[in-house]
Design a protein that fits this description.
Order of helices and strands: HHEHHEEEEEHHEEEEEEHEEHEEEEH
Structural class: alpha+beta
CATH superfamily of the largest domain: Lipoprotein localisation LolA/LolB/LppX
CATH topology of the largest domain: outer membrane lipoprotein receptor (LolB), chain A
Shape: globular
Strand order of the largest sheet: 7-8-9-10-11-1-2-3-4-5-6-12
Distance between the termini: 49 Å
Strand content: 25-35%
Length: 404
């Protein structure tokens, strides 16, 4: 597969980020949480279609100009952050199914955190700005998130629970609709933050073609230029005709399987049936209404795992300091307390357990513990300071030393 014309120049790309953001079609409204691989063969690229040459700049413009508003399809997502298996502890802590507390298993902010690990199959549908649906298929059960006009419904068939929220037309960032924009489900959603990360610290090229879900596509490759990032590269398969991202793959700098691989296995641009977006709570279902007094949370981490300082600085985290820029930016803040105690005398069994999950680190800053995934790493010093980003352990230690 010979590479097509590449364009490493990032001139004017920063000024196009806002334009690129508007390519996000309605499915983003009902996106699904991921934190953030080797998918099954059905998701693999096939073929090597002969397409006209295109530069990276032109392909980004094609994505930005995409006007797809109607589609149905199946998406497979595989996420491998390398997190330890806590045997359901995570679900209990987040209020997911089987957890205690007042939360509903149909609330997307808890239910769809399941996409943060493992393999999942989604059915998606969209018809304009006011009608979208995503269904997470499970063993003998299904979870659906539906946006129809001003109503947003979540339904968990396993527990027969329903979550209802009202989209606020006066401000797209309010209510459950605003929350959902932080929760990616499709390659399009994941690509949005990757494009926002494009600046002079980024290499952007077009490297060949592929066929995804029966559609001819270009392969857009996004790579950090600076060393120290845990992101190796992001590859996006872009529909050659519509400009819609069909597949998103994030490969870590350490190599191996992808951290995130999400792609359509089937897609149609035909208008979905109107009944697709109809929903009435089943008889006997427990219905939970969203608390309108709760402000939507904003994640400081982009959908591709790239730290987003613009969001973080406006997210209300007191004392947050962003060190560096681009792919190697690090969020630093002081918890005002102690870090992870080491040894049973200092922290008891719980402190020892937490410490065992990380690697000890030391430097001019003193001592601390580094907690690692295949993408996001965090250094917690013994005096309670935290440094986190999509960067290596050495980069975190260097930042802590320089901040001393």
């Amino acid at each position: 597969m010979a590479p097509y014309e590449s364009d490493d120049s990032t001139e004017d790309l920063g000024s196009r980020r806002r334009k690129a953001a508007r390519y996000v079609v309605p499915v983003a409204v009902v996106g699904v949480a991921a934190a953030t691989i080797g998918l099954v063969p059905a998701l693999a690229d096939s073929g090597d279609p002969d397409l006209p040459k295109i530069s990276a700049q032109q392909l980004i413009e094609k994505i930005a100009a995409s006007d797809v508003e109607q589609l149905t399809g199946t998406v497979k997502i595989n996420t491998d952050l390398g997190l330890p298996d806590f045997g359901g502890l995570e679900s209990s802590l987040t209020g997911g199914r089987g957890g205690s507390g007042d939360g509903s298993s149909a609330d997307p902010t808890s239910k769809l955190t399941e996409l943060a690990s493992g393999s999942h199959t989604l059915r998606v549908a969209a018809d304009g700005e006011d009608k979208q649906k995503i269904s997470l298929l499970e063993n003998a059960a299904e979870y659906s998130l539906i946006h129809n006009g001003k109503d947003v419904w979540g339904y968990d068939s396993a527990s027969n629970e329903v979550f209802h929220a009202t989209a606020d037309d006066s401000d797209g960032k309010k209510g459950e609709q605003g929350k959902q924009e932080e929760l990616p489900a499709t390659p399009k959603d994941l690509t949005e933050d990757a494009l926002k990360a494009v600046d002079d610290t980024t290499s952007v090229t077009v490297e060949g073609t592929a066929q995804v879900a029966g559609r001819d596509a270009y392969r857009l490759v996004i790579k950090p230029k600076d060393s120290g990032s845990t992101v190796g590269q992001i590859t996006v398969a872009v529909d050659a005709k519509t400009g819609l991202p069909l597949k998103f793959t994030l490969t870590p700098a350490s190599g191996g399987a992808a951290v995130v691989d999400a792609g359509f296995t089937q897609i149609s641009y035909a208008e979905p049936a109107a009944s697709t977006f109809d929903f009435t709570p089943p008889k006997g279902a427990k219905v939970t209404e969203e608390d309108a007094t709760k402000a939507p949370e904003r994640s400081s981490q982009g959908r591709d795992g790239h730290f987003n300082p613009d969001v973080a600085q406006g997210g209300g985290l007191d004392g947050l300091n962003v060190i560096g820029e681009g792919w190697t930016s690090i969020a630093a803040f002081d918890t005002g307390g102690e870090g992870i105690p080491s040894g049973s005398e200092a922290g008891g069994a719980f402190g020892g357990f937490l410490g065992s999950l990380g690697d000890k680190a030391s430097g001019k800053f003193g001592e601390g513990t580094v907690f690692k995934t295949r993408l996001i790493n965090a250094l917690i010093t013994d005096d309670g300071k935290v440094y986190v980003g999509a960067v290596t352990k050495d980069a975190l230690v260097k930042a802590a030393d320089e901040a001393r």
